[in-house]
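ASSEMBLY PREDICTION REQUEST
Request ID: AP-0331
Submitted by: J.K., bench scientist
Number of chains: three
Total residues: 769
Priority: normal
Notes: Please return the full assembly, not individual chains.
Input sequences:
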Amino acid sequence: MNSQAALQTTNRIIAAILGGYAFTWGFSVLGITSLVALGIDFHEAETGLSLIAFLVFLGLFLWAFAAKSMIRVWLVLAGGAAIMMLIGTVLQNSLLS
Amino acid sequence: MFNSLRMSMGWVHTWMGLVLGFVLMICFFFGALSVFDREIDRWAIPDTRFEPQPMPSFDEVLKPVYEQLRPDPVDMAATERRVVGSLPDPETLELESLFAYTTHRDPVLLIGGEFAIPNEPIDPTDDHQHVHGRATVNPATGELLNDDALKIGSDWFYPMHFSLNFNWMMLGYWIVGLAALVMLAGLVSGVIIHRKIFREFFTFRPWKNLFRSSLDLHNMTGVVALPFHFFFAFTALVIFASNIYLPVTHTTLKPLHEHHEKLEAARTGLPHEPAGVPAPLASVDAMVAEAKRRWAQRDMAGEVGFLSMNHLGDENGYVSIYRAGSDRVALVGEGIHFKASTGEVIREEPPRSAVSSIDEFLTGLHLQHFEHWMLRWLYVFGGLLGAVCIATGFVLFVEKRKARHAKTGSQGSRIVDALAVTTVTGMVLAAVGMLVANRLLPADLPGKGQWEQIAFWSVWALAFLHAAWRSSPVAKARHNPAWREQSLLLGLLSLSAVGLNWITTGDHLIKTVFTDTYWAVAGVDLSLIATALIAFFAAARLRAPVSEQKADNALSRNKQVNAYD
Amino acid sequence: MTETIWLIAAVTAALLSMSWLALAYESHWQQVFPESGTLPNRRRLKLSAWVFLLLSAVFCLNADHPSMAVLVWVMLLAVAAFSVAMMLSHRPALLKIICLPLFAAKA
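STATUS: Completed
Returned structure:
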């Protein structure tokens, strides 16, 4: 494996593990707060999201290796994580106020 | 980088599977042993070889036991580092909460509690302001058992499969979590790269070359137990989701979580905080009787599996009684909560919602509190199928590359093969070696458990050194003799464990199976003998690979099967 | 006690089902009956296999609470499939015995 390919592979592994994790985190935050905002019990929402979260992570993990464009992978994973975290925390603050 | 979906999935399957496969071997093998962790405990601690018993009377038996409970010195030291000033004398600390836990397989009862401390935390957001204490009790007599004896099953093999017993910064948990994710990815990618799944459902051709027959076994063990593999890896992640792997509700969403806890305390009537007014404790036995009556009314008569008390000695104190999960997949449940000072019912947990039922089923199927011996054995078998699937994956990796590596002078397949020996035969040697050490070391040796752990790691490390030392033939595209040598040693070690159990405790198989039946010990002994037989069989096969003649016969006999290739 | 009987029935049904499912493949049929030429009736084998698969589920449900029965059944199928694969590769003649009911039906 030449250094170019090694770099690309490393990029995919990091995207799959860390990028996928960040997205899953944001997804859970947004998921739980949205469900609570819709009137669902907090623990129900928490449990429900823990059941879905790892399937989402699994999908993202595999996609990070299968995708053609790594730029798109990073845009979706990092961008998605940031946006969902932001909306989720804003939603939390409005729920608590 | 990858030209097609199959290529990218093949890469994930091969390389992620290889790297995390060594961890997955540990998870599957020690997970399979954990199915019978309590039984292994009985084998390793002969003093506790008596029949399982239900939760004893709290008022008569347990109450005085909690008075003897003391804070755990290790947790004292850990807590000392988190608080301002030094902690008071452990003898003076008072219990603020307690629990007792048992299952239908436990002759001994696990009890514990939290001791209140007056110190302020260094980190103001740290709300974990107490020291834990834990003890093992003989429920028949109420005497504290020697907690120095390591429960090899439930305190070593069991945590091994989810934390690698590597607790520094919880790193072991995280490695296992990543391995579980990679297991799921390996299953999905395996299905994608391998299209003819059901065609090879029943196909195993041991007479073919090592690559081909290993591929058969890899596919078959992966596919026949696919639901088992998927759900165990998946539920492993779900079980630790909210506390370790994805603790969003303890970090990002902590404010919302706390807000909810207060609302819930108000709604359920279970006080979140103590009142600060001292109060006595009513009869707990009466509460247990009431709980059992209510379960029977719901057509779920059962024993107590978990009993806990919060805000001890306070006006706001309450007692929670949970049913032992025995005839259902779900864990302890059907909780009924009583006011500690009066014994009146504060709350009876309502039937579970759909989401919680699914969650209970998924976590319950992994944690298996149920009473079903056949399903337990089926689980052991599933775990071993998982281990075979991964071990054959290593063989495939090596067989595919070693000829090429021999030409180019690469050491890659040699290293992988040595690590495969270490995580297949070496790992089983470590486990059996620990049992042998357990029988050889005197029972009253101070810190015996420490020595047993040292024996475990030493045997494993030696197995690795041996595998590495003997590995040079692999670099010349031949087989590593360590596979056979370690198999032989494993056979001998397993038999000697059975013999040592007989010599040191007098419990031989004729006694434990026929004259004075005690299946926990008999089962471990029989499993050790089975291990020995398989190990000797493997060693014999490794010495004499299928002869050409026999292979030809088999080939012509099964010529139709070859149409797959 | 009755649970044990139901479970034994479930194990038997699962084993029969998996054996017939395997024999419905031409190649596996050849392993068991090398002298008998081609597969007689593939559809009937498959049909009986599926019926017995369902039967083993019913037996499991009779033995345990449904949530437990599902687990027992799924694990049982894995073990049965593995056992059949091992019989095919090591003792294919054993599967002839399992086929007897089928020949009885044919005769």
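REVIEWER COMMENTS: Chain A has a mean pLDDT of 95.
SIGN-OFF: pending second reviewer
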